[in-house]
Specification:
By secondary structure, the protein is α/β, with parallel strands linked by helices. 20% of the residues lie in helices and 30% in strands. It is built from six helices and ten strands. It has a six-stranded mixed beta sheet. A four-stranded antiparallel beta sheet has the order 1-2-3-4, with no helix packed on it. β7, α1 and β8 form a beta-alpha-beta unit.
Length: 220
């Protein structure tokens, strides 16, 4: 098991068996059981149809526009050739209190693995406001909603250009929910993205106020 996510370890009453769920970017979530002095053994095979079809993720650290380190996951395109540049999608997660992890993201609004199979590189960044990096990191977007975040998304795309994997003339940005909102905001601040995909995002904060189905947001 390389870079990955482990969920919900549970120990048997006799202390001899540990069960947990594990996923990596190229391995859908499976349940494993481990006993002392032996390797963990999978007891499910939900992801067998994806064997050999998913791309591993690389955890990358980016320098944000305000100097704060931003972590993300880079998915390489199928048959990646280090001598070539590829179209790049920066996919923004929802929330903002959520985060991309080094797990197989395969649900309907997570497009990374689908796009890598079609020759795209995909960057999954965790800008300020994301969970998993402490409360101070989450609070960085207070009084600067969209501002610093969009700059960091641009900085992430530029870092992939400098890395040599992204074609500067074929950059795209997209996301769902909060990711859709940041997509709409980002393309008003820069013209580096040639395509943008906004899913279930708010494009007008005035008309969007009190019109959503999240009560806390409507009260803000």
């Amino acid at each position: 098991m390389g870079g990955s996510i482990l969920d919900g370890p549970s120990v048997s009453s006799d202390g001899e068996h540990i069960a947990f769920a594990w996923s990596g970017s190229d391995c859908p979530l499976e349940v494993y059981v481990k006993v002392p002095d032996k390797d963990a053994v999978p007891v499910t095979s939900f992801g067998k149809d994806f064997d050999g079809r998913l791309r591993p993720g690389e955890v990358v650290t980016l320098k944000g526009a305000d100097g704060v380190d931003i972590e993300g996951i880079l998915l390489y395109p199928r048959d990646h050739d280090a001598a070539k540049q590829y179209p790049l999608l920066v996919q923004v997660h929802g929330g903002p209190s959520w985060q991309w992890e080094d797990r197989a993201n395969l649900i309907w609004h997570d497009w990374g693995q689908m796009l890598t199979s079609r020759g795209y590189a995909v960057l999954l960044p965790n800008p300020p406001g994301s969970t998993g990096y402490g409360s101070d990191f989450e609070r960085l977007l207070i009084d600067d909603v969209g501002g610093g975040e969009s700059q960091d998304l641009v900085a992430g795309a530029q870092a992939m250009i400098e890395r040599g994997i992204a074609d500067p003339n074929r950059l795209a940005i997209g996301g769902w929910s909060w990711g859709g909102y940041l997509t709409a905001w980002a393309v008003t601040q820069t013209d580096i993205f040639k395509a943008a995909i906004m899913g279930a995002g708010v494009a007008n904060l005035v008309s969007g106020h009190a019109a959503g189905d999240i009560a806390e947001a409507n009260m803000a």
